[in-house]
Design goal:
mainly alpha; globular
Length: 44
């Protein structure tokens, strides 16, 4: 899965996904997206 595909699957922009993964976003919504990312990638 590409970075772009993951962002599209989550319904967010690539820039926002990058911010989440680089620790630049840590609000409630970002935490929800992190949970979704973990589920998609099957990370516990």
């Amino acid at each position: 899965m590409t970075f772009k595909e993951l962002a599209e699957l989550l319904g967010i922009s690539g820039a926002y996904l990058s911010d989440i993964l680089n620790g630049k976003r840590d609000g409630k919504k970002a935490v929800e997206h992190i949970t979704a990312i973990k589920n998609v990638l099957k990370i516990k």
